[in-house]
Design brief:
The complex is a heterodimer.
Chain A: E1 17-21, E2 29-35, E3 38-48, E4 61-67, H1 75-88, E5 101-110, H2 115-130, E6 138-146, E7 152-154, H3 158-161, E8 164-173, H4 183-192, E9 199-200, E10 202-209, H5 211-248
Chain B: H1 2-11, H2 19-25, H3 27-35, E1 52-56, E2 64-70, E3 73-84, E4 95-101, H4 117-132, E5 142-144, E6 148-160, H5 165-178, E7 181-183, E8 185-188, E9 191-194, E10 207-209, E11 217-224, E12 229-232, H6 236-240, E13 244-250, E14 256-263, E15 267-268, H7 269-292
Parallel strand pairs in B: 4-6
Antiparallel strand pairs in B: 1-2, 2-3, 3-6, 5-6, 7-10, 8-9, 11-12, 11-13, 13-14
Helix pairs in contact in B: 2-3
Classes of the chains: A alpha+beta, B alpha+beta.
Amino acid sequence: MSRLDRTRTSPHQLRPFFSSQNLLNRADGSAQFDFGGSSVICSVVGPAEVKIRDEKLDRATIEIVARPLVGLPGVKDKTLERNIRETLEPLILSGLHPRTGIQIVVQTMKEDGCILSTAFNAAILALLDAGIPLKSILASVTCIIDSRTNQILLDPTIEETTHAKSTHVFVFDNKVSISSINPEDVAMDEDSKEPSHTGILFSDSTGLFTEDEFFECANACFKAAQAVHGFIRTAVSKKLEKEYQQTRA
Amino acid sequence: MASSTTASLAASPAFTFSASTFQKLHPTEYFRKFVSQGVRPDGRLLNSFRPTTVHQGVITTANGSAMVRIGGTTVVCGVKAEVAEPKLDAPDQGYLVPNVDLSPICSSAFRPGPPSEQAQVVSDQINRVLKESNVLDLKDLCIEEGKAVWSLWVDVVCVSYDGNIYDASLTAVMAALANVRIRKPTYEEGVVKVSGVDNTDEDDNSSFKLKLARTPLSASFVLFDTSLTLLADPNFAEEAISEGQISITIDEQGKLCAVSKVGAATTSLTSMRQCVDRARERSQELRAIMNQHQ
């Protein structure tokens, strides 16, 4: 079955990724991440001075500013800011930079579905570019369940989202969480064939769906997130290779 | 001689704390001591919720209202119906506008001024549950297509804040929406007339109730410590030291309406399943409490 955007043949296919790091001159780190027609640019400034009121004695203050494609930031952007901050804050080793501030600005450039996922991926690339010490790397994928076919569609476009009965955003990190592997998990793994190491870092689902559909989506997104992880890895290693060649020349 | 000194030192440490001082200095360690014994400082078991009450119709001047108490958290929700002009791209749909207010009244954690991020996020979560789970058909709020529709202002005010504001607010919103009575309007030559006396209690034909397709109710949990122990219905202190939060919103048929997980810790699918199972029990308890007071 072909997807509504006609470039994809499988419901589990993602749109082509694109990323570009270090494209803003005045920021300490920046990155752009695209999922097909969706594009988010993200800048990181820091560790820098922080307002006395926001200063934390034992770690850096992380501030996220989300800017929409058009108009002024609203309630939606506040939710986006909160989601990204709550997820990134523990990932950043902020204890290494006490009493400083790290500001992350997320600007939507093109909107065609999955903005939250695109923003997550752009933010992690920008943090890598800025050289902020991180505990692990995250990757995010969105999926919907189509109301007509009950099929899970990964990385939907806006057009596909209008037919969704539910929307699910997931973030997974690249470390196998030791705490999530306990005997019960392994036992369950054998009969339900669920990867026991699937640790959800962030999840946000709305709509109407059953418990089984939710876990099916989680597993589909987990598999797809591995591709995003691989892409981020290649992007970073290519960038470092280029930098190394430039310094040698 | 030397050995006796160390022995006496071990027996009586240089200084001791009272339990409440210890709690203030090392909140996480204090909690850990309780959690390792399978209880919480307030006497609850790890998966038990605080006592909950729901009262409907507490504000007589509103079209619908409810007050919900979950332990130390109290919220009041009022629904006011106003006649408004519909949007051009949706001429037959009314408005449903939820808003959560966390003012300095309810806790010293909130400052006066524009709505805090938390208040905006809770408002947005409730808004998304109401819209995306099709709780109410907005076409039911139409008075005259393209001319006049009902606009429902759903305002939640927190009176006392002790954690788990999302569960409390969503319960209050659903109870208040179930309580709404709106007098039947008539539309004549550009004027909307609302007839009858302002008596919303009586079961007459002059007013109508909202047709709610479903009643989503939620259950929230926090993950505590590196062991990622699940604590149901977190209070303010538990929220502050949590490693992550999980909220499950479920309707009466057992369908999920929203799932959210935020925070530092990664959650295994097994603990997500535990949360969903517990949320299922909890939403039934909550539904029983809601119907009791109706």
